[in-house]
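Record type: monomer structure entry
Structure origin: computed from sequence
Chain ID: A
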Amino acid sequence: MSSESELYTELFSTYSNFSIPTNATPLIVTVYLHFLYILAVAETQETIKFLAFFNYYWTDSYLQWNSTRIQNIVVEANEIWRPDVVCTSCAEVTGVLGDKRIEIGSDGKIGYGFPEVMVSRCPLSIHNFPFDTQKCSVTLQVMSYQADQVLLKPGVAFLGDEIRGTTEWDLKNVTAVWVLNSNNKTGYLEIEIVIKRNSTCYVWVLMVPTFLACNLAVVGTFLPTINTGTRFSKVLLNVCVLLTMMVLLDIAAADIPKTSYLPQLAWFIFIEMLVCFLAGVISVLMLVTHHIVTICDATSPAWLTCLICESSKSNEERKEKNGETRHKSPKEFDFSHGSI
């Protein structure tokens, strides 16, 4: 061919972009993933948003020529036949580029592909949240042709070097496999994206403060008391800690989908809240007992008297050894000086 324009006229004078460009079936379309960037993972909507560059390669037997001068030509993408590959698992697909051009080699080999932003459904299993690993499946399917006409096949080196996660999610692996439906007429290319959550933020922002607050409430409950005001302060401390737990639990609940089961983080905070609640109940019981014995001049419960007597006997035996023994009746015990 003397010029590219003459070659273009000869190739496309009788060419139709509506028919499969091969006499042999099926036409094999090889798929490669040039790069994949995770943009966002919405746990509550159970979707994953990513920027992907899929390359599709096939041979068009109607666009071949013998020439030593012109090795390839560039044409508009809508002028040639292309497999209408659709992401059937995606709720939204947005092209990054506008006008698309395709390069055709003299042997009829065509490479087609452009970066696209995809939003795909990704059901999450949050049993191990925030130490969870998720697997998201993205399906690509040729809509207008059956599996015996056009076959999507992942390339040998399907995954490129450019795969990136986000600050919260690490992209671990991407694999692809061709799946044939039970009717043997249709199939799809299933791409599995494996991501792992970075749990550092959840550990230091939620778990560690919750653990420290719970221990503060427990330690504060069993500190020795001087008067009823201090006892009331302990009850208020437990109430404040419980409110803090509720705030932290609300923060965690905002980042996870509403399911019929609780993740590990929710169980952790719930157990810590239960411990603080029990510490608060013990503080209230000790406050009521202290009030009955010291203010109302009532007889203390038998178990409490027994506990105090045993404690008093131990103290008296210790004082006898030191020569400081003095006798008191059980009714003379001062409950207001931290004996409880």
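Annotation 1: The mean pLDDT is 81.
Annotation 2: The CA atoms of residues 71 and 299 lie 106 Å apart.
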